[in-house]
Structure formats: structure tokens, C-alpha cells
Amino acid sequence: MAYPYRVYDELRREAPVSYFEPTGQWLIARHADVNALLRDRRLGRSYLHVATHEEFGRPPEPEFQEPFWRVIRAGMLDVEPPVHTRLRRLVSRAFTPRMVESLRPRVRAIAGSLVDAFVEKGGGDLIAEVAEPLPVTVIAEMLGIPDQDRHLLRPWSADICGMYELNPSPEAQHTAVRAASEFSGYLKTLAAQRRRSPGDDLVSALAQIDELTEDELVGTCVLLLNAGHEATVNVTGNGWWSLFRNPGELDRLRADRSLLPTAVEELMRWDTPLQMFERWVLEDIEVHGTCGSRAARRWRCCSARRTGTRPCSPTRTGSTWAGPDNPHISFGAGIHFCLGAPLARIELMESFGALLDRAATLELRHEPSWKPGYVIRGLHALELTATA
User: Fold this and answer.
1) What CATH number should be reported for the domain holding residue 280?
2) How high is the pLDDT of residue 293?
3) How far apart are the two ends of the chain, measured CA to CA in Å?
4) What's the total number of domains in the chain?
5) Domain extent for 383
6) Which residues pair with 123 in a beta bridge?
7) Which of 4, 107, 229, 366 has the fewest CB atoms below 10 angstroms from its CB?
8) For residue 273, cis peptide bond before it (omega within 30 degrees of 0)
9) Phi, psi of 363 (to 5 degrees)
10) 370, burial (CB in 10 Å: exposed 0-12, middle 13-18, buried 19+)
């Protein structure tokens, strides 16, 4: 969990396609293969648009999970065209390049305020005090969540995402269902209010779209919250932990701030927060002589996300900072490429930049520990001492 990359290196060399019996998944380890498969329409995030669970050779989902999947499958991430096409077209209106760039001053102000408070008190847990509040505040403002309710968002999101882990425990499943039900109820109430009295926010805008069902509105908002901050939080924590383990790279970044854009890309690639994404085989396919059969329909394709073709050194995270080309796939690829990638990049740039600008020194208090999740991978905390 703390360092899976030696295993990835071994898989790339010796077993680019391998079967993992405990979870019934095929693992695809090489960058070119992963990049191609994420774009291949013979694979899908779901199979329910072409077959039932039983027809696909899968057991039916437990009845208690129904509230969770009703929310999740109403968002664009877990559906395929034509539903995905319609939902993405509607939601993408809120993520035009011009609109996202217009958020930069507000993101910069939030990041600066959080970092100032962090430095003024001499440091603390960077994840809880800077990494989490920034993207949660940004997405909450976009959605139009009232200030007094924003403390609910992060716990709901974390609990919902527990279902995405490999073979989640019964407790994690029930927790995810409860969180999805609570968040769904909250959003339905909020959307009803905004239909009557719309504001200048995304929930109000979505509530006015007749093409969007109530479940699709809820599913879209839940997806925007989860995708809008879970990865950004963990890129921040994982990235700073990588820099502290490689102080020469941190010094280099402090000395030349023009490296920040490419540094952010490299840190996303180097210790990515999303280690694995799943695809289902919808039509016959072959990868390196291994066949996934549409008839069997039980072949699942998962990808190790740090799959770059360029050589990596565990003692030099920034070996590619000097160049503009970093074809990582931390945001996915194909039709499910992350809609919020431009906003995530702005948040990361402003967060890292504020810390570099406003904290003269940042020192690690103790080595952090990793959360038990693998699919979504991040630190419990990152305790630092900071001085102005």
C-alpha cells in the first residue's frame, strides 16, 4: 500500500496482462495498453445498458444497496452513451474553459487564506487544514451549498467513495448507502428550493433543465462533489510527501517557480491518487494474446494508473519537470476523461503556489501513514511545522 510501484514495474516487464483471482479482475499494466483501452468502446464503465446482471453472469446486487446505486448510476461516470452523451453535454456547460479560468481569482483567494491561517499557527495537518477545505469550498460554492451545510460534504463523500474499493466490507457498504441516501435527500430539498427561487449556482442551473430528471440532478451533483475534490485532496497530500522525500526537488521548485505547472503534472503521475479504474468487456477483445470474451462477460479490465513509459527513479520525482510533455492518465482518457481536470489543475497550482510563497519553511513532523484504501489512495494526515 505504501509503495506499490515495484510490483507495477514487475508487471510491466513480465506480465502486462495478468489475472488477479481474489477479485476476479484482469490487470493491465502498460501505459500504451491502458491509454488505448480507456478509449476503446468495446469496454465500458457499465454493462447495464446491454445486459442485466444475470445475463452478464453476475449475481444481483443486494437489495440494501439500491439507494446507493440509484444515486451513482444517475451520474455520468457510471453510464454509457447515449445517456452519458446527454448528461455530459448538459453539465459541460458549467465547465467551459472561460468559466473555469474565471474561478482562478476565487481559488487563489481561498488557497491564500487557508495557507495564511496554517502558517500563522505554526503548521498542523496539511490535509485537514489546506488540502481538504480548498476543493470542498470551491465545489460547494459552485453548487450553491449554504455555508452552514458545507461541513456535511466531506464526510458524505468519503463514505460514498468507500464503496469503490476492492471488495468493500459490509460495514463500508452500509455506510456508503447511508451517506448516498442522506446526500440525495439533502440535494432534492435544495433543488426544490432553487426551482422556486433560483440563484447564481450550479444546482439552480441544473434545476431549470427539463431534460434532467431529479435522480440525474442528484447523481450529477454527487459526482461533481466526489470527483471535484477526492483526487485533488490526495494529489496534494501525496505530492507534498513525495517532495519531502526528495528535498532536492523541493529546493529546485522553490528556486524556480516556473517549474510549478509541470511539477504538478509530474506529481500527479508520480504518486497518483487513483491507482485503478475498472472497465467491463462488452465485446470480444484481445490484449497481448489474452482474450476477453463478450460471451463470458465476466472479464474485468483494471489499470494501474502510474504506467508512464519514461524511466522513473524513486529518488528523483522531478526528472520530467523541465519538459512540457507528460502524457500521464491521472484524469483518465476517452469519453470518461475527467470533466473537471482544468479546475483541478487550477486548484493544485494555487495550493502548491500559496504554500511555496507564504511558508518560508515547511518541515515534516513525522512520517505519515496511508489510509487502507487502494483504488483511492491517500494519507491519513500530513503533519508539518510551518514558518513565515
Assistant:
1) 1.10.630.10
2) 64
3) 34
4) 1
5) 5-387
6) 385
7) 366
8) no
9) -125, 140
10) middle
Average pLDDT over residues 142-161: 94
pTM: 0.91
Identify the band that residue 305 occupies on the pLDDT scale cut at 50, 70 and 90.
low
Length of the chain equals 388
What is the residue whose three cell numbers read 439533502? 186
In the three-class reduction of DSSP (H, G, I as helix; E, B as strand; rest coil), residue 88 is classed as helix
Q: Which amino acid is at 3?
A: Y
Residue located via cell numbers 523541493: 250
Q: Which residue has the cell 489546506?
A: 130
Cα–Cα distance measured from residue 343 to residue 349, given in angstroms and rounded to the nearest whole number: 10
Phi, psi of 339 (to 5 degrees): -65, -30
286-to-37, 40, 291, 294 alpha-carbon distances in Å: 10, 12, 4, 11
| 317-363 residue pLDDT tens | 555 554 567 888 889 999 999 999 999 999 999 999 999 999 999 99
Question: Rounded CA gap, 40 and 303, in Å?
Answer: 13
